[in-house]
Specification:
Structural class: alpha/beta
Number of strands: 20
Shape: globular
CATH superfamily of one domain: FAD/NAD(P)-binding domain
CATH topology of one domain: FAD/NAD(P)-binding domain
Oligomer: single chain
Bound molecules: flavin-adenine dinucleotide
Largest sheet: 6 strands, antiparallel
Strand content: 15-25%
Radius of gyration: 24 Å
Helix content: 40-55%
CATH architecture of one domain: 3-Layer(bba) Sandwich
Length: 502
């Protein structure tokens, strides 16, 4: 149904989801006002913004961010001027061919679809600064910074569904909108406000059971990023996951994710000396953080309370409230390890644009937005939660050096390590399929269920470990006992604590 009038849009939050909402809706001509508690980025380039932007409302700003191919594709196809502005600001793109492991590279033949597998490489501060300046240049977008939204304006006809009309600001002002968007991030108070008004949005949530630790580095003058060697710059040691995130303008960051059960390591790792010693002990990371190549330019930032959460705004097709839409973390939170949050936010914002264009009926819009986001994003969300549960179990079992996994778990591990991983590492087609799923260009598991995949996996297993020896990755770091001994940490303390608490 065609729209009959240009609606006004008021958005809580000018983080990634608020900015993506403005990006998606600005070309529709609607007048869009973003209300943001934090101050705007300082004038100047990416360095000035990284050094000087205070963002108490988005504390993850100074953690490593990966921007998946799905997000880059959306920007490249729908907002090419934004992609140009990102390049101008120093953000880089890494083509699929440039990120191939050596075992795949030798046999790789490019196909046209590989072009959409490029990713954006940038600090989050740089990406956010550029999107913000880009949307602010639209005459119908206004970002009001330094305003704190403290409540909701809504009404309800007798026995009807709650209709949201706007926001209440802390200073008493009311800002109305025909459409009210919640892009207030992981801590958005929207659900509480709705509940107070008698409209409850059900949600499911699951702890990620990890904490994030990130430090930023700058390459020294005349130094380049190290060439890709036999050791990958990312890995999973069970008690520690780690990754180097190349970024813009000669910077990169290093993130370590520590399972919640690893209390001793969590306390120690925020110390710059310990963080540095861990880096030096990881063969894929050490060439990056070598003081002859790069120097740290930040403290070790820590972040906890990481959860995945899905808030349902139209359970069983019945809208909780009308004219209100959640975009970004206020709708779905994901484990940062998968690098999907910003892609989710951008996909949701553009789905909202499409839904608004298809119908002017508030009920139909709420239903369609819920159905569309579920259809596109839920497979990735469910897959992630399953993987997180398995990782949590592995980390807890890993505290006990005598732990013996049951046969079924051993079998599954063999299938993955000696089958899937080996087949992917030697077959460009499988590698491409796995990466397309990782980057959200295909459903997460479809490639694994194909008979051709299974045949290749079984063939890899049948060849045996000896014949496949060259395809196993080099050990990415010391095992837990060796690392704890090197750092002077008590390896048994967490298990003892866990047993005492049980
Ligand atoms: C440690 C960590 C690492 C991550 N790494 C990645 C990654 O690699 N790749 C990726 O894609 N995603 C990553 N994410 C997820 C990503 O950061 C989020 O998904 C994304 O920021 C969501 O955008 P948002 O706009 O919903 O929330 P935010 O970006 O958090 O923005 C919310 C905005 O709302 C404002 N706000 C909140 N309340 C109010 C109020 N009452 N009044 C006014 N303003 C308000 C805040 O100030 C903030 O600006 C990571 C997350 C974390 C925690």
């Amino acid at each position: 149904m065609p729209e009959t009038k240009l609606e006004s849009v008021v958005v809580l939050g000018a983080g990634i989801a608020g900015l993506c909402t403005a990006l998606a809706l600005a070309p529709t001509g609607r007048s869009i006002t973003l209300l943001e508690r934090d101050t705007p980025p300082p004038e100047g380039d990416a360095e000035a913004v990284f050094d000087g932007w205070r963002r108490r409302g988005a504390t993850q700003l100074r953690h490593s961010h990966a921007f998946l191919a799905r997000l880059r594709k959306l920007i490249a196809t729908e907002h090419p001027a934004l992609l140009a502005a990102l390049r101008e600001a120093g953000a880089r793109e890494l083509a699929f061919a440039d990120g191939l492991p050596p075992s795949v590279k030798a046999k790789y033949v490019a196909i046209p679809e590989d072009e959409e597998m490029a990713i954006i490489i940038s600090r989050r501060t740089t990406l956010e600064m550029v999107i913000r300046r880009h949307v602010e240049a639209s005459p119908n977008v206004t970002i009001r910074s330094g305003v704190f939204v403290s409540g909701l304006v809504s009404d309800r006809e007798a026995a009807g569904v709650l209709t949201v009309r706007g926001f209440q600001l802390q200073d008493g002002e009311t800002v109305f909108g025909d459409l009210v968007i919640d892009a207030g991030g992981r801590g958005s108070p929207m659900a509480d406000w709705l509940a107070e008004a008698g409209a409850t949005a059900p949600e499911t949530q699951q702890d990620c059971e990890i904490l994030y630790y990130t430090r930023f580095y700058e390459l020294l003058a005349g130094q380049d990023e190290p060439p890709r060697g036999p050791h990958a710059p990312n890995g999973d040691l069970g008690y520690l996951k780690f990754g180097v995130f190349p970024a813009d303008n000669g910077t990169f960051s290093l993130t370590m994710a520590v399972p919640e059960v690893e209390g001793e390591l969590r306390v120690a790792i925020v110390r710059p000396d310990i963080f540095g010693r861990i880096c030096a002990s990881l063969p894929g990371v050490a060439p990056w953080t070598d003081p002859a190549r790069a120097l740290p330019v930040s403290k070790v930032y820590a972040m906890g309370d990481l959860k995945s959460r899905w808030r349902e705004m139209a359970p069983e097709g019945k809208p909780v409230a009308l004219n209100v839409f959640c975009v970004g973390d206020s709708l779905v939170r994901t484990n940062p390890l998968y690098g999907r949050g910003c892609s989710f936010a951008a996909i949701e914002a553009h789905a909202l644009r499409d839904v608004l264009a298809e119908s002017a009926d508030p009920v139909a819009r709420a239903q369609a937005y819920s159905a569309r986001t579920r259809e596109v994003l839920e497979p990735f969300y469910d897959d992630m939660r399953g993987q997180d549960r398995a990782a949590g179990r592995r980390a807890a079992n890993g505290l006990d050096p005598d732990y013996q996994p049951p046969w079924r778990a051993r079998l599954m591990r063999r299938f993955i390590e000696d089958g899937v991983a080996i087949a992917v590492r030697q077959d460009p087609e499988l590698f491409r399929a796995a990466m397309r799923a990782f980057h959200m260009l295909e459903p997460p598991r479809a490639w694994l269920g194909k008979p051709a995949t299974l045949a290749k996996v079984l063939a890899a297993m049948a060849r045996g470990r000896k014949a496949n020896a060259h395809l196993y990755p080099e050990k990415s770091g010391p095992d837990r006992l060796a690392m704890f001994a090197a750092l002077g940490l008590a390896a048994g303390a967490d298990l003892a604590r866990l047993k005492a608490a049980a």
